[in-house]
Write a structure and sequence with these properties.
The radius of gyration is 26 Å and the shape is globular. Helix 10 runs parallel beside helix 11 and helix 14 crosses helix 20. It has 567 residues and is an alpha/beta fold. The longest helix is centred in the C-terminal third of the chain and has 20 residues. Helix content is 38%, strand content 16%. It has three domains: 155 residues, Sulfate adenylyltransferase, CATH 3.10.400; 164 residues, Rossmann fold (3-Layer(aba) Sandwich), CATH 3.40.50.620; 176 residues, 3-Layer(aba) Sandwich (Rossmann fold), CATH 3.40.50.300. 3'-phosphate-adenosine-5'-phosphate sulfate binds next to helix 15 and helix 16.
Length: 567
Amino acid sequence: MTPNLVPIPELYVSWDSARKLKREAGDLVSWDLTPRQLCDLELLMNGGFAPLTGFLDRADYDRVVDEMRLEDGTLWPMPITLDVSEAFAEGLKPDQDVALRDPEGVILAILSVGDVWTPDKAREAERVFGADDLAHPAVNYLHNHAGPVYVGGRITGLQPPVHYDFRARRDTPNELRAYFRKLGWRRIVAFQTRNPLHRAHQELTFRAAKEAQANLLIHPVVGMTKPGDIDHFTRVRCYEAVLDQYPSATTTMSLLNLAMRMAGPREAVWHGLIRKNHGCTHFIVGRDHAGPGKNSAGEDFYGPYDAQELFRKHEGEIGVEMVDFRHMVFVQERAEYQPADEVGEGATVLNISGTELRRRLAEGLEIPDWFSFPAVVEELRRSRPPRAQQGFTVFFTGFSGSGKSTIANALMVKLMEMGGRPVTLLDGDIVRKNLSSELGFSKEHRDLNIRRIGYVASEITKNGGIAICAPIAPYAATRRTVREEIEGFGAFVEVHVATSLEECERRDRKGLYRLAREGKIKEFTGISDPYDAPESPELRLETEGTDVDFCAQQVLLKLESMGLIAA
Ligand code: PPS
């Protein structure tokens, strides 16, 4: 492959036009971009997603979903769509201009509206991600986060999104192309990653550069990765810590503000196209590239080498050569890393999986030198203290009158008695007085209430405190959203207070069940509104015939077994 290092077309207008358009755009209907849309827009505007010129219109979308191709036949595996609410979509007309704003309200681009349609999300999930299964992060996103309507249309770029972090490490496709041109790099192999680099990665990238006789671009994703991943601030500090292990004359690192979908094979092809746009000639595809983890039946969504297979099939069209690797393992006798398929018989193979690494970090255990670099481990330990020092959330859910608040109170007192971390109780009634006083009990309002609780709990967890929540939280999807938000910062311990409806009604502490039965309270959980019992909570408490103290003890034991409080 020869690199194409001439500038790639961007969607930005000149500085002068942008200034003028921005002034006029103040009067336009505007859409506040979600974090994912913000990432997509940046790569659309700077040519990272070339040849796309905007968010997909319907014909392009349909063919991308079904055949991985745009309407004109060009290979493109990922639907890049602008999802909006029904209310917003209602007023839109074809060719209307819409101002796209960042979270601070700055207008970044103008969208000239093309098609507006309601997609079949189940079909998108099946075709693009291989299964309509909420265990897949992108399918979950599609059903539980993305708006119900898509708006296609061309983009006029006014300015790139502003980043305040690691500015010197972020490059547009044209900046990287210019850099390669300037240094005379003609063969460039890109390494994509969403994890810190350990010794296996170093070996793999060295080998790839040697094999391809190419310069190396370490190109980590700092946009959106898999929920639960190590945050990009920590990762970039880790990357910087290992960069001096690489020869600076032949290697460089640049950060990519991509929102990953974890779509395995399709994602690998997409990553290849993006790297071609950034001036690369080769791309490393390893084992389980952009893998989403297990499906709801506990099996892998994709085979470990499906991504390599699909990439190979389309290599010519992608325009980037694949450097494929088997899983790298450490061979003790040779004291070096080797691809698993090259290891001789009888050799002792050592390996620490991602899960095992997280466990060791969480429990403050040793991480051996053969696995990682001391500077990386130090950085990881700094941002991930052992679990017993991290923040966490205990989230009680159950019917009204099930005993949530009483147990939550007892737990709070016991945790405060132990000391060490600040404890906050977000009880249903307290929250409704202080945070959600204007809300009722419709589905929409309950969701909003729980999301507010989740937000406060995630902030508490992030900052090393203990949040105890005790709302009814009747909807599984909303609880899951809250879990995802919190698990980015610390543990989420769901406790189902499983007192039966009959028992709650028999107790009827607040007299509400009687009123609900008489129809005087509408939408009452369990009587005239649904409750999704948690399928696999961390703990289920049977309260009938047991006292509060015993229930609180069970929660403490659970927290202890999870390493969240010292034994
Ligand atoms: S939710 O669904 O999670 O937002 O509910 P939550 O914020 O926990 O509020 C539940 C408390 O409000 C009282 N209440 C009702 N509950 C359920 N359905 C209806 N329609 C309703 N109307 C008022 C009730 O006292 C709940 O308190 P708890 O502590 O759960 O008994």
